[in-house]
Amino acid sequence: MFAALSNPRQSLTQVLNFALVLSTAFMLWKGLSVATDSPSPIVVVLSGSMEPAFQRGDLLFLWNRGQNTQIGEIVVYNVKGKDIPIVHRVVRKYGGGDKPLKLLTKGDNNMADDTELYAKGQDYLNRSEDIIGSVVGYIPFVGYVTILLSEHPWMKTVLLGLMGIMVVLQRE
Amino acid sequence: MAASKIAVYSLSDLKNTTDDALPNYLTSLKFKQSHALTDVRLALSSTAVIIAAITFYADYKLGWDATKQGTFWAVIVYFILNGALTFWIWGVEKGKVFNGEGKDGALLSISSSTQKHSPIYYLKVKTSASITAAPTTSEISSSFTRWFDSDGYFVAKPFQQWLASEIAMIGEADPKSVEAAKKVREGYVELTDGDVKVVEKNEPQGSGSGKETPSKKIRERSRKNLKL
Q1: What ipTM does this complex have?
Q2: Which residue, of A29, A73, A105, B131, has the fewest CB within 10 Å?
């Protein structure tokens, strides 16, 4: 490794190899975003409000093309001003066609619908603005890793550091 | 370059160390190394990384809706560059470790390769008198044991002697190594830690004290270093 410092091309190669690993992962994610037309095409279920359909830690795949959402579909939405995506089922719809489509959602495991959760003064979701996608597939439990990582931020630092050290030291 | 110890059973360690030593030796013989191939690779990969970095920053600052169109093109260009990079490494560079010219302007290009689980170093050597002249290609190979001692230290002399005696163009630039290699081959000398020492003539090949056996001194030393 120290020998590499005396050779600028070789050290640049090693730095770029590491950067390429990170940037390829990021661009694959962005490519998936572009393909699904969703800012976040894969989300992890954070609460138990959709049990028994989805458990905490399930990994969901979203699709955001085709705006004609039907009652019974499970959608993921972002509430204005809050940064946490919520996974709930559509129970009522208004408008559609020429008029903007408005949706009311409810968690399967919740007693009441989501009006309480929406932003102040909002009593429905706007399909084109609030929804980030409909659920088209899921893998149970594997998303639990990210729940652990977000609840214990030091794990992220450790993981990233280890990856960096490995790539710099190895030349495979 | 400081000599460092490697694991003798790791093929990639053997190859990488040798790959690094080869251009060092040739540049010490006043061969002029051309970095054009490497520079194209570095340009491709850094452009790709910069595009990804800009996409990341724009997404972070402006959000998804504002950057959607730009992200679409960035993704396309990024993967085109990545494809070009892969093609460059596998199709054009092909394991090239040295590309350059000698004193009289003759061109020399050397690619190295190994085969899985086999400690043999293969070199593909392409030489031509000038850019317009037809190139001659030759392939040479040798066991890594020739220039690594049993402790995993790279020994430059036998490696240089091997190159100088096998590749005429290098031999012309380093006649001393050719001479030394000839003596070793004829069995008049035995290799030690890098110097050539004249000893009694060996028995013909097969007696176990051929050119590829580490010297007694090195063997003694490694036995002493063995911790049980």
Answers
A1: 0.78
A2: B131
